[in-house]
Amino acid sequence: MSEPVRGCVLLLDGTPDRSRGAVPNPTAHALAGADPRRFLATPSVDVVQLPGISGPQSVLAYLQHAAAGPGPLLVWVTGRLMVPSRRAKELHLGLSGSTPGSVRYTGLPWAWLTRTLRAHPGPLVVLADIEADTAAWPEVAAAASGGQLADGVPLFGVVTPAPATPFREAGPYTSAFLDVLRAGDPGGGPVLDVAAVHRQALDLAAPGERTLTLQYGPVGPLLANPAAAPAPVTAPAPMPVSTPVPLAVPAREPAPAPARVPEQPVRDREPARDPGRVRAPEPARDAEPVHGPDSVRATEPVRATGSVRASGPPRTANPVPAAPAPAAAVPARDDLLPGILAAARAGRHNEAAAMAAAWEQQALRTYGPDSPEAGLWTEVRADLARLAGDHGRAAGLWMSAARARLARGGPADGEALAAVKRAHYCWQHSGGQAPGLATDLLALWEQVPGGRDAAEDVRTRLRALREAPPAAAR
């Protein structure tokens, strides 16, 4: 029997020590503590963690070994992209001790990574949550827009400008991606779509304007779906027991027709048992189908009380095909809200948002994008964003919910007006995001009765924000 194909998760951290001192990269630390063996949809997974490794040749050896296997391969890259301070501006992933002056010798050329992984024969994805310093940013932006950063390798993630002070928490994209992985897709199969998880993570992380988002290439079956329903275990079909056929013995001479003898019951004509052989179990006589307590037994066969005339093989009733299992429906929102709100109130906002987003996707597939069921989950996500303090995102979600309610019920729908009011409240607390949201909010107030005063309030606040100094606007 062939052994199952083993998967591999390679965690590569390219954070130069000099930029962080003794503090490890919190993003890489979060990945290592998230049980990476559960990431892949395969029973056997090897995890290789390379924190603070020095020397590009050592990293290349690990990459070549991981790419040689046929199983699914996930390479998660964290750290910093750099370019040499002199000569060629080739992108490098900084390693231990890398500086702009030494990265040409101490860093890993990014082209080595893509060229090595391109030879992998099985499912592959590279997830990146990396930063780029000021000198490398133009090269990174050009490579990302032209596709050279992926160079034929499935690549998903973000590139952010290097901060002046190292972050003390994991990157928002990685945190959101891990939360979406933990929540899974309750209505999906055993494998998650990497592109869908990537989009949900971006939706939760809400990256800034200068963040470069990476999404290149299709990905095969790779990420495990922890929320998928287990496959039904069906009992194997019973093997048919063939009736032994006696060997035909030619008659020596034609025998006269015997006198008619009354037929004996079947139980009196059992074949003789051979004590030297193990006989297959015989099917039970007069067997009845198993009925549930509420089953109707009107079609139960009548059993004969006298002798049975064996004029041929016994007839078997045609089996009744089992009714197909009904499609899984989305549980009621009120049944799921307590657990989601408990996570939000405990401070696990990304986890709560990921759970709500997963159930929203299930409602979209089950009921459609314009259904009230899907709209309710949009409102849940809006309230979760408000609880997390992201008022700009909450305002945008409430406006989406209001537009959906107006499309279904028109301006007379009181719930649509309530959604616009909630969007207005969150917009008032959205700070620097308010100007970008004002146009949509004004359009909504113009569609509901009594919205003139509220629309004027939006215009007044918008003028105040535009006339205020930059510091006050923030």
UniProtKB/TrEMBL annotation:
<feature type="compositionally biased region" description="Low complexity">
    <location>
        <begin position="313"/>
        <end position="326"/>
    </location>
</feature>
<protein>
    <submittedName>
        <fullName>Uncharacterized protein</fullName>
    </submittedName>
</protein>
<feature type="region of interest" description="Disordered">
    <location>
        <begin position="246"/>
        <end position="326"/>
    </location>
</feature>
<feature type="compositionally biased region" description="Basic and acidic residues">
    <location>
        <begin position="265"/>
        <end position="291"/>
    </location>
</feature>
